């Protein structure tokens, strides 16, 4: 594998998933930017499905950043107690709300978002993509971390920041906004830990599939 393979070649090779998943909304069922930010923070090391389940009741009590900013950790915890690491996340969310104060103050820049507690580059890339502002990186969630090396885009790594930087090296900036979520959706639906290679729209260029076929000839 050549890490610096021509980026335009990769754009062409990945077009089937870029077309399949283009503009698809993130699986978190949010209804505004405030909800998205809160749900992204809560979803770290947890499932989107679980966050979607607890969100309606949470947002009835805390409908906006202002209501969260005048609350406290003790009042928030009962509404997120089914979320993994809820204590830490409650502290993060109260600190974020007290910093931002109002929904209209939510920053939509890489520096502005990553300066907030509990929001790293992955979360920032999700928020910026969903808010339809120019992205500065590539979403590298757990699905992307698993799938991108399988395809042959980058070497294997468990470090999301390293994965993102390597993807930014090999892929042209024009597709950064969509390719992270496209690979993520592929990982959620087809390229599972036990992949369904026969259903994959990019199995023709996938290193994992080529290796599997050579080891299991029909």
From TrEMBL:
Keywords: 4Fe-4S, DNA damage, Glycosidase, Hydrolase, Iron, Iron-sulfur, Lyase, Metal-binding. CDD domains: ENDO3c. Residues 42-189 form the HhH-GPD domain. Its cofactor is [4Fe-4S] cluster. It comes from the Bacteria. GO terms for biological process: base-excision repair, AP site formation. GO terms for molecular function: 4 iron, 4 sulfur cluster binding; DNA N-glycosylase activity; lyase activity; metal ion binding. SUPFAM superfamilies: DNA-glycosylase. PANTHER family: A/G-SPECIFIC ADENINE GLYCOSYLASE/ENDONUCLEASE III (PTHR10359), ENDONUCLEASE III (PTHR10359:SF18). This is DNA lyase. It comes from Flavobacterium alvei. The lineage of its organism: Bacteria, Pseudomonadati, Bacteroidota, Flavobacteriia, Flavobacteriales.
